[in-house]
Amino acid sequence: MNQLPPEAGRLHIRSLTPEDYPLYDQWEADLHRMHVEARPDLFCPLEHPVPQEQYLEELNDCHELRLLAEVDGVPAGMCSFTLREAPGSPLLKPDKSLYVVDLYVAPAFRRQGVASALLAEGERQGRAFGAKRLSLTVWPFNQQALQFYQRLGLGIRSYTLEKELEPPFSGTR
Q: What are the pLDDT digits (tens) for 19-58?
């Protein structure tokens, strides 16, 4: 993997702002389109998967973390995280974790360490929150992402399996 040179200031990560919505909206639409194309049985086509009102609410939610990576001042990628707090129960221990909602790197900046840097900054902020683990969902059609996450040390915690069910017999022929 080609890494960005370690020159100071070349890669900068900051929180997204309200003014970043048009870029965020474009990148979320790209991510969503990929999911619609791969699983049209599950995902509905949407022009704006995250409406601006929702985006603004999430920016002000202390359990939501939205990061933007810039390379030489040019937007290169973004990552959305949710800080989760699960109370204990008779079956499960209380837990604080950091969940990756979305990760996107612009094509011109892929394989240059942008995604790794975004995740590292999310992890840093997650630890400050008290998170004990990082988790995410990756779809099997996205093998490139799966391999990337595995290289970073993420492993399988559980499997979600599915089977298409035949429609019920209607009794008419």
A: 999 999 999 999 999 999 999 999 999 999 999 999 999 9
**Edge-to-edge strand order for the sheet containing 74-86?**
11-15, 64-71, 74-86, 95-105, 133-136
State how far the Cα of 108 lies from the Cα of 77, in Å rounded to an integer: 10
- The residues facing 84 across adjacent strands are 97
Query: Are residues 64 and 12 in contact, defined by beta-carbon separation less than 8 angstroms?
Result: no
In the chain, beta strands by DSSP E: 11-15, 64-71, 74-86, 95-105, 133-136
Q: What is the pTM of this model?
A: 0.88
Q: What is the rounded CA–CA span in Å between residue 138 and residue 100?
A: 10
In DSSP notation, 94-109 reads -EEEEEEEEEEE-GGG
